[in-house]
Write a structure and sequence with these properties.
Tachylectin-2, Chain A; about 475 residues; four-stranded antiparallel beta sheet; mainly beta; 34 strands; 2 domains
């Protein structure tokens, strides 16, 4: 372009462009757009080492202390890659609120992996999902963040936080590897703008001697209440609290929770892990949730109005965690629009039902050791309780029978025998677990359940055991007729 201009004009334009480029290079990143006021809270978590426990579950709270399981307590996202299980999910919002990510540990102890193998020969990748609205999520993908760390045995407990100083995200996690002759867990980090490409991993936090650490989580504090902009909690034998004014700057140790009788094992007392921060909406008060893994009691909160000293924390008893056990996760404060979308998608509650036999009306469908039969006086009662949710295979008016006490498990036929099984995410499972309610074969005021993938067969009992059979006589019609009653 400059070839058509006088030489002096071209030189002036060249200098001007260089000056603008320099100014752009040193100008601070544009501040994030202000979000609408927060009205609720969303927790992403896993539930434990059961067959479906190492997947993504969600819970909602109005006040930050009392939680309700979403999606009727069933899992929301399933990992179909890597180890096919996820733990320690971190939910991340972009500064402008137009994009979200869930980043999680690629680990499934339920598959039979030992903790030793998982720590020393486990996945060095993390699992990521992306969404534009918190309800429609992409397929998961893997990012091998720890692959470049010499001798890396794993990549556990990821977290991410937007760094306004650099305009991207600091993604950090724990890796077990040898360094200076000592093998232990340390916290490493990369920078990323899209959770697909990332920088070379750098060491972030290391404790002295042989002391390892995992489960670090950082929270940004508006107006630097307590004297610092950022606070982090880490499980390193204690629950150590540190503070800083920049994410990648120098951190100052404020103390731990030993004075409250809380530790990560070194100090005894109440032994916890998985520290999870949350700020209460519209006030300067923070909760630090701690997973009481040693006793299996799940999360407990301690709260503070000034994070500048660990002495400001107090224990709380005015909280409730909902039905599912909640293991190491993260909490996102929700705007009204976000809350409306989340509750519209997963908040409606399907009632608990029992399924009564037509010809043995004192008996109901129940699971026992994952087999399915009809029994009277079922104990525990939840073995005979199901939620009739929209059919997993789709189709207008179809249903699937979701177990109440085994989240993620459904009644499905296998070899025409009925069993209670964990949804494995396949199309075959979805079809085997989906039925079409039709007028009762023995009494039109009752209901029969027709298989969607074998429409000539119906759900029936035979010798009190549940089967999928063609129905050809009066006995079969009676055996295949049911009534849904309240749980």
């Amino acid at each position: 372009m400059y070839a058509t201009l006088p030489r002096r004009t071209a030189v002036v334009l060249t200098v001007a462009c260089l000056l603008l480029a320099c100014l752009a290079a040193v100008a601070p990143k544009r501040a994030a757009a202000a979000l609408d006021p927060f009205t609720g809270y969303l927790m992403a978590h896993f539930t434990g080492e059961s067959a479906n426990g190492e997947q993504i579950y969600l819970a909602h709270s109005d006040d930050g202390l009392h939680w309700t399981d979403l999606n009727n307590g069933q899992l929301v996202l399933r990992s179909t890659i890597g180890t096919r299980g996820v733990r320690d999910p971190s939910i991340v919002r972009s500064p402008s609120g137009d994009r979200y990510w869930i980043v999680a540990t690629d680990l499934r102890i339920a598959s039979g992996t030992s903790w030793n193998d998982a720590a020393n020969r486990g996945s060095t990748s993390l699992v990521v999902w992306e969404s534009r609205d918190l309800v429609n999520w992409s397929a998961p993908w893997l990012i091998n963040v720890a692959g470049a760390i010499p001798g890396a045995g794993n990549a556990w407990a990821p977290e991410a936080i937007y760094n306004a100083a650099t305009g991207d995200y600091v993604l950090y996690w724990a890796t077990n590897s040898a360094r200076n002759g000592v093998t232990k867990h340390r916290i490493w980090y990369v920078r990323t703008s899209d959770f697909r490409s990332f920088t070379t991993p750098q060491l972030y936090i290391e404790r002295g001697g042989t002391q390892g650490l995992i489960d670090t989580q950082i929270i940004e504090v508006p107006n630097s209440v307590g004297g610092h902009r950022y606070y982090r909690a880490s499980a390193d034998g204690h629950i150590t609290i540190e503070a800083a004014d920049s994410i990648l700057g120098t951190w100052t140790t404020l103390g731990n929770l030993s004075h409250m009788g809380i530790s990560n094992g070194t100090g005894g007392g109440t032994v916890v892990e998985g520290p999870m921060w949350a700020r209460f909406n519209e006030r300067d008060e923070w909760a630090l949730w701690l997973d009481q893994f040693a006793t299996g009691r799940g999360y407990m909160p301690i709260t503070s109005t000034d994070l500048g000293s660990t002495r400001n924390f107090r224990t709380r008893s005015d909280y409730a965690m909902g039905g599912n056990r909640k293991r190491h996760g993260s909490i996102l404060n929700l705007t009204a629009a976000e809350e409306s979308r989340v509750l519209g998608r997963w908040g409606s509650s399907v009632p608990v039902s029992r399924i009564q036999s037509y010809n043995f009306q004192d008996r109901h469908i129940r699971h026992a050791d994952f087999d399915v039969r009809i029994d009277a006086n079922v104990s525990p009662a939840q073995d005979a309780q199901f939620r009739l949710v929209p059919g997993l295979a789709g189709g207008s008016g179809t249903v699937s029978f979701a177990s109440v006490n085994y989240p993620g498990y459904y009644l499905r036929h296998y070899g025409f025998d009925l069993t209670l099984a964990a949804d494995d995410g396949t199309g075959t499972f979805a079809s085997d677990a989906t039925f079409r309610p039709v007028a009762g074969l023995a009494d039109a005021s009752w209901t029969s359940y027709q298989s969607v993938n074998y429409p000539d067969r119906y759900l029936r009992h035979y010798d009190y055991l549940l089967r999928l059979d063609p129905i050809t006589d009066a006995q079969g019609r009676a055996d295949a007729t049911w009534r849904r009653v309240s749980g």
